Batch of 2 targets.
Target 1
Amino acid sequence: MANSAKLRAFFETDFPLNKEGLEELFTAFQTEIYTKNELILRNGDSERQLRFLNSGNIREYYATTDKETNINFYTSPQFITDFSAFNNNTKTKKYQECLSEVELKILDKEVFLNLLEKYQCGKSFIDLTFQRLLEQKEQHEFDRLTKSADELYQDILKNHPNWLHKIPQYHIASYLGVTPETLSRIRKRIS
């Protein structure tokens, strides 16, 4: 399958399947291109696809009638599916918006579950994925409650420096829970 090296690398290193299972899985993914500002996921949607970000930048956020709060950014090849909604057959509460042109590798949920059952690896894939997501979510919540905006910005510098080049600053400010002006002051203090 052309242009699936990043997807292949994820499965071969993070979640090895047998060779036949991998080939069948890779050929089942379809490529879709989204444009800047296009919504991929909306609050209330059923999560019926496994989506892998092959290229581009995506912001994930919650929204009310009066504000949006960024909760994550995706800038490197990784799965962007709301796995909680995917696994529990519930509707998502998140939004995902393209911040650039985006290429996704997409697999229908039913096809994916059938492949996992066929190769008897479904439970281990879901368990591994959930373990990682829960660890990330717990750390993120802890950081947001215990760290200042300056400390959170330093974490971005250390752990996600590409965000500062790929994500608009007003979105970074929302993620930090500050205004764009406050973010400018933080950047001046830290640099």
Note: The mean pLDDT is 86.
Target 2
Amino acid sequence: MITITFLGHSSFQMEVGGKHLIFDPFISPNEKAAAIDVDSLAADYILLSHGHQDHVADVERIGKRTQATLVANFEIASYYGGKGIENYHPLNHGGSKVFDFGRVKYVNAIHSSVLPDGTYGGNPGGFVIEHEKGAFYYAGDTALTYDMKLIAEEFTIDFALLPIGDNFTMGIDDALKAADFVGTDKIIAMHFDTFPYIEIDLEEAKRKAAAAKKELIVLEIGQSITL
């Protein structure tokens, strides 16, 4: 079983194989996540899908305190290595690495990527996490892409964390197709309602998911579930 805590926007803390993973930590600048104490979060690994500020804002704050291993593409991992993150592991698209909690594969995403100071952030990606009890997909920021079908050919995906906020990423309609492509009926929603550009009609999204016979899990910030 995996414990998943929503930290707001696209940020999650997960306990996988006894290790704490944090994905795309954008917490302290997010007014909606004001109740989250960034300095109390446990982290053994920090996984970054791309370099945009709304995905990396708290990397140094968490990474330097916890000595967590940063997992990202080559450009981002190297960038934070130069900023004093001592533990990092670079990946690139199609590559995978076995860590002590499971295997991480870095998969394609269609988006853009630049770090907050304008440094080139390489190409964006997502992660498939394969652990002893199953596998899940963290999409990062992405459009719908047929490459997602390759994930279903290699893995049995228990659930997928997918953006539904539209405008900069997939909206709910494409997210439902993405769930079909990767072979899961369980979606954890992310990247919606944080900013005016990505505010959506959440009830309509839930109705569309129900009509498509998908389980759309919408967590409150700070809420934890076990899957």
Note: The helical segments are 53-56, 59-66, 74-81, 148-154, 172-182, 202-211.
